[in-house]
Amino acid sequence: MFDRIANGWELAKNSWEVLRLDKELLIFPLLSGIACLLVLASFAFPLWATQSIDGVLQDEQPLQNVLAYVVLFAFYFVNYSVIVFFNTALIACAMIRFRGGDPTVGDGLQAAVSRLPQIVAWALVSATVGVILRVIESYSDKVGQFVTALLGGAWSIATYFVVPVMVVEKVGPIDAVRRSFEVLKKSWGESLSANFGIGIITFLCTLVAMVPLVLGIVALTSGQTALGIAGLVCGVLALIVVSLVSSALNAIVIGALYLYAADGEVPQQFNADSLSHAFVTK
Q1: Which residues, including other chains, have CB under 8 Å from residue 96's CB and lie 6 or more apart?
Q2: CA 126 to CA 158: how far, in whole Å?
Q3: Does residue 212 carry a pLDDT above 60?
């Protein structure tokens, strides 16, 4: 167990090396975040206008709120499309770096555009699953939440490698899920521990970023407005940077694990030993 966590930490450091070489990769999670906020804003009014979205949030029976669920499905679809599009672009750039190239933002966007049919198809599948889980959750408070958490967790794990599969193999959503699960069976231990390593780094950095935020709040409550605003701004900016770096590192390590599992190829900036230990031996 501890060996796997240590190995995951090593993979997280390797991912950081890739990000250090290609800092422009941070643009993709930034664009994704901005686009998701715009999507949320564009859906805010129609969700409010249906006057039935409260029923969804309060776990009322879905058949009583058909329109709200239709709007919810549309929101999921557009939101997933945006997220997967920019994740595809990021992983495509990471793949170029893994193979010794020097990727640009244009390379990533071009790769994402070329895979737009797969991205749209996957967003449809993801939106459908999301709405189904929401419907299940609406039927019962405790049981529904438990079943939704269980099914949602299993779905997230099974689809862990879907995006790099789409980037490299250009397959549809069904084949992408199947291939993702095949790769996962080899690398599940390290996939989870690598995320754990990145999670620890993110948590520690988040604590540091919270310091100016807390100081800013304290300053505001004590009447020091200028100092308080400065602290809040610095804290928010620091939290945004931590979020961007965390998203980029997660995408990079997923791409590296997939490449090694699918082709036996050791990405540059990664240690062959770490990758070889990332897979479960039968």
Answers
A1: 102, 103, 107
A2: 12
A3: yes
